[in-house]
Amino acid sequence: MSTSMLPVDELVGALAAPRVMPVLEKRLSQVRRHRAGTTVADTVIIALAAAVTATGQMITAETSVITAHRPALTAVIAAAVVALAWAASLVWLRAGAYRRGVGERLALLPILHSAVIGLAALAIVEGVSGSVVLPAHVAVTLPVGVAALVAAHAVRRTWMTQHRTTHSMATRTLVVGDRTSVEHVIRSLTADSRFSHNVVGTVVQGADSGTVDVDGAAYTVVAAPDGVAELARSLCIETVIVAGGSDDPDYVRRLSWSLEGAATNLILATRLADVARSRIAFERTNGLALTHVSIPRFDQPTMRTKRMLDVVVALVALVPIAVITPIIALLIRMDTPGGVFFKQQRIGRDGREFSILKFRTMTATAEKDRAALEEQNEGAGPLFKMKDDPRVTRVGAVLRKYSLDELPQFWNVLRGDMSVVGPRPPLPSEVRDYNGQVFRRLYVQPGITGLWQISGRSDLSWEQSVRLDLHYVENWSLATDLRIILRTAAVMVRPNGAY
């Protein structure tokens, strides 16, 4: 029956926009109340931090750097501007984080980002009015506000954990697709602590029931692909992730229509992984969404820029290294007999062999003794690793824990054998076992540090190590190198996975 033949009341009902079911509305209301409470608390914290600064400015108005006819009014206006801009941008950035299912590791970034926006707004006001108010807020409001917001976040997280409601605020997610794609998406989401998706069910093509087993956890298959929208409403689903595998080119479009009044977000998962956001651009044309991916460049001008950074960092680092080397050398010689330095052949860029230089951390007969320990190898792939390697000396264990054994490698960097940041330098025996895409690790110079160093070090599996190295090879930039260098310093202070 066409809509023109329906009675008026039925016609209105047929053409009305989909309504959110009461059970889903209740869930969304719960989430909104939680976020509103968080917003109010954070706004109060920011306002108090700005008020502290304004109060200090008014108390010291006579000797203050505030150059205005009404210093008290100027201080109040400045505090209001920074507080409003900071709080408003924090709400906006947090909304985007919630929408993407951001987890613990990325939940703190909106705090820092919004703080910068607040100070930028105040800088504009200062430039227009001529009143010097920014330094006081940088010195007081910024550190006090950030510290208090981080502390409040930690308190909320602890309270939610203790009351077992951690997942109640996590995005309730349904994963749709063929079995292999669904398994891959769930495995990727659960392995990355930056995201917080509570996968409450799956929809697998060709299966109306059963489970999807991922790393020992079972996820229930709750419906057939045609029942996603109805299921999303009944299970209070907030995000539907389409993992791919459909042969119907219009499936996603119809699914998005059917989800109106149900799920709040629709995410299309793709295997286009390990590509930095800066290399991806999106465009639309008639009937198509185009994804542009920039291809990695390994030309000489690009590598020359990286080399300049390496030389500068190596020259700066070798000065303090020269000071502490005699002390480390004395400790090594006093601990066990043998040389101070350890040389070993490694493979560099384009397969070139070079001698890597490290402080000796094992006994002098370590290479000969390895054969007797092969059965106890805990490393994956071609790597040889042992948490309790008997060849490691007492001083060597400390040097390894804090990565001090790698300091002489800055000489390799200065020589051009290595880079400060890059893939882990492999042994010739490891390279002989390479296959396929693993050879891409040799497209750039190996590094003293890299993504593998700041992501678990020896605790990483062979597959994880390879994936991190390949990600770096394809997406490196000077900004990435500087970020890894800074994070490496933090890892050295709080070592994890080094043995």
From TrEMBL:
The protein's name: Exopolysaccharide biosynthesis polyprenyl glycosylphosphotransferase
Major localisation: membrane
Record family assignment: Belongs to the bacterial sugar transferase family.
Domain of life: Bacteria
One GO CC annotation: membrane
Nucleotide-binding listed as a keyword: no
Domain Bacterial sugar transferase span(s) in chain numbering: 306-493
Family matches, as Pfam families: Bac_transf (PF02397)
InterPro entries, sorted: Bact_transf, EPS_sugar_tfrase
Mode of membrane association: Multi-pass membrane protein
The keyword Acyltransferase appears for this protein: no
GO MF terms held by the record: phosphotransferase activity, for other substituted phosphate groups
Record-annotated membrane-spanning stretches: 36-60, 72-93, 105-124, 136-155, 311-332
Keyword vocabulary terms for this entry: Membrane, Transferase, Transmembrane, Transmembrane helix
Location in or out of the cell: Membrane
